[in-house]
Amino acid sequence: MSPPSNGPGANGSRPDRIGSRRVGSYTTARVSAGRVERVERHAGRLRRDAARLDLPLPPRIEIETLFLETTRKTFGGRDGIIRVEWSHAPGGELELIATTRELGVEKTSWRARSGQTVHPGPEARHNTKYVEVDAYLLGRKEALAHQVDEILLFDADGTLVEGSASNCLVVDAEGRLVTPARSLGAVEGLGLTIVRENRRDISEAKLGIEDLRAARELMATNGVRGVVSIVELDGEKIGNGEPGPWANRLRGLFFRE
Predict the structure, then answer these.
(1) How far apart are CA 114 and CA 220, in angstroms?
(2) CA–CA separation, 23 vs 51, rounded Å?
(3) Are residues 88 and 126 located together in one domain of the fold?
(4) Are 91 and 214 contained in the same domain?
(5) Is residue 87's pLDDT more than 70?
(6) Is residue 5 part of a domain?
(7) What's the start-to-end Cα distance of the chain, in Å?
(8) CATH number at residue 86
């Protein structure tokens, strides 16, 4: 997941978000040396989420063309991040909107905090990467305020659901690779999907804060950053405070060292 941006839309305009709530979903891709990584999968994901939200499906060719043309104009041969959104304002027409930002510093590990914002649960988002979700926006503000890389969001029962910008992976005290259950309402992110496809031994679990503190490894995953080890939570080390073997192994699904 990446934060909403008020950058130019597909037609160069700026979507009006003041006093409105857009309806729809988005997908965020990594650009490496001017190439959009997994552009076909991002287009498929945006169409899948549109179907889940009972919205008309955006044409695949238009999604891919917007990804490629915006990337060429903005980044040339550089690295970056591009987000494509399929949404509409109340009473407005559905539109494809592309926004971009710099890739920023690549970290080998992250520091995280438990969020003060309660995760809203499944709502009617159907595990889509829905636009303008307050819990994610507030979580990202928390991350900036506390100068950490990620905020972990728990539901009203104290169960981990996801991060404000990523899905979560945990190697529990017994050494099992687990992730929060989809039924809790987390985004079905592309990073987590890739891990699931390659690690059939991954299972779903109900995880509280004490489970995370006792974990051997805690990781964040999304389509832009791949898998990143979270080595510190609320100022306390996870495991030995270094990226573990699972994080190093899973990172290889996304990037070749």
Answers:
(1) 14
(2) 13
(3) no
(4) no
(5) yes
(6) no
(7) 24
(8) 3.30.470.10
